[in-house]
Amino acid sequence: MSNDIALFIDNGYLQKVLHDSYDQSRIDYLKLAELMRGNDNLICTYFYDCECYVSKTPTYTEMRRRISQQTFFNFLKSLPRFKCRIGTLKRVFDQYGEPHFIQKEVDVWLGVDLVDLSFNHQITKAKIIAGDVDFVPAIKRAEKHGVITELFYSPSSVNSKLLNTVDTATVMTADLIKKATRMI
């Protein structure tokens, strides 16, 4: 028996996991969705990210990066059953005056989509690439509505509370990533 599923990809987390080992630009998100889907009936793949930072007076490099990113987001939106949820990137300064960037809206979008699909009984299973404890309340609510949750994660970067909340957890192995990588 197959499940009606949705895939949820926190791209900030995925890029963090891939950073050390893989060329991030070569990930084929359609292949990744197919691999995660397995034999289940895919309703939709939700992709969460934020726009890259652009200063008030953008540099040439910032503008090129933004245009490239917009092209990538538009490409993903053109894929069958893909939806992009784009948050914002906020620049903050630490106690030493060093700038850091924080994603805004991304985690909330994922939580809202997961709860909406669960509450409306549009899915019976959710497969999630994430590592942040912020998703625990949404996952618990989805499970309350009968949705089976599966987490795809890296052992080097996952919150233990999140790991212990989901029904099943699958390590994103090098083999899985290799299968989802475009050959150039």
Mean pLDDT: 91
How are strands sequenced across the largest beta sheet?
4-3-2-1-5-6-7
Radius of gyration: 17 Å
Large-scale geometry: globular
Give me the strand/helix succession: EHHEHEEHEHEHEH
Structural class: alpha/beta
How would you characterize the overall build of this protein?
- With 184 residues, the chain is an alpha/beta fold.
- It has a single domain (4-179), classed as 3-Layer(aba) Sandwich (Rossmann fold).
- It contains 7 helices and 7 strands; from the N terminus they run βααβαββαβαβαβα.
- It has a 7-stranded mixed sheet, with helices on both faces.
- It is globular and about 50 Å long.
- It starts with a strand and ends in a 5-residue tail after the last helix.
Describe the structure in brief.
The chain has 184 residues and is an alpha/beta fold. The protein has helices spanning 11-18, 29-37, 60-78, 106-119, 136-144, 160-165, 174-179; strands spanning 4-10, 41-50, 82-93, 99-104, 125-129, 148-153, 168-171.
